[in-house]
Design goal:
The protein is of the alpha/beta class. About 35% of the residues lie in helices and about 15% in strands. α1 crosses α10 and α9 packs parallel to α10. Bound molecules: N-[3-({4-[(3-aminopropyl)amino]butyl}amino)propyl]acetamide and zinc ion.
Amino acid sequence: MLTFHDHRTQNRRSTSELAGGELIAPLECPERVDMIADRIREVGLGDIRGATMHGLEPIAAVHDPAYIDFIENAWADWRAAGYTGEAIATVWPTRRTRSDFVPQNIDGKLGYYALAAETAIEAGTWEAARASVDIALTALDHVQTTGEAAFGLCRPPGHHAAFDQYGGYCFFNNAAIAAQAAREAGASRVAILDVDYHHGNGTQQIFYDRDDVLFVSLHCDPVHEFPHYLGRPDERGAGAGEGYNRNHALPPGTDYTTWVAELEAAMSGIDDYDPDLVIVSLGVDTFEGDPIGSFKLVSDDFTDYGRRLAGMKRPTLFLMEGGYAVAEIGINAVNVLAGFDR
Ligand code: SP5
Ligand code: ZN
């Protein structure tokens, strides 16, 4: 399988993640990509190719243009306000306050557009987030021109990013942007299968009222886990999208036997939908050693489910999402891809 990547993703070098009341070194770090790329070369998965620029139009097909401007300018605005640390939201529109106007003040804007405070914006964030989208779209181009599966080694990840919100380490929703681009390029139906440990709240929201993009997610139940306020099984879509959103919420500590039974159910639903393209939001934070996950998958399990995904026999685009056990992230992510190729 070919991998697509772009070094501009490494321009995001945030030094601060708000966790447990402290600023820690971010879990979503540049080394994650290095480990995956090293493992791809080690096992000879296939070439790693560069990404081509796709511009802002495909991003604006999914995200609010004012939000895109915000991501572009937030760091400069923050610096202009005299702040010396990284840009972190500290105040939010909440129940019974207003969210019908965007504040002009940078603190107000940060809270307006942030869905979580753990994710800081810094000097390289805009460039890296755009590169991550270019990677996804270049990998999509490859799937569409050859029919072969491809891997977009995206970073930062995307599935928490909504129409006009960032957070959960995500800025632009790479999978949603690729799904929309595939639709515009002629795919009738696209399925997004999100296997990250966390619910893909952004992807769900973007396609919630649509039946042309099926969103299926396996994740830790949000009553126990981030993103906390979305991702329950009774969220099934709205209007034309009713029935086209499927949340498989699993308890903390879920092991592979339980997880893979849900995956089989999820894949059977995808098969009935008969999509022209499957996009896999590939988070490997389901690993037993993940520092923020609680699931119990071991490295061989990733190979096994990669093989099962190939059984769908659909054009497939893998896009990297989460996974924070840096020492094993290359093994686990590449095991899925190699299992698929077997
Ligand atoms: C893409 C992705 O996987 N984003 C995940 C963002 C999670 N951010 C919040 C993490 C909070 C972790 N709390 C874990 C407590 C463990 N003791
Ligand atoms: Zn995750």
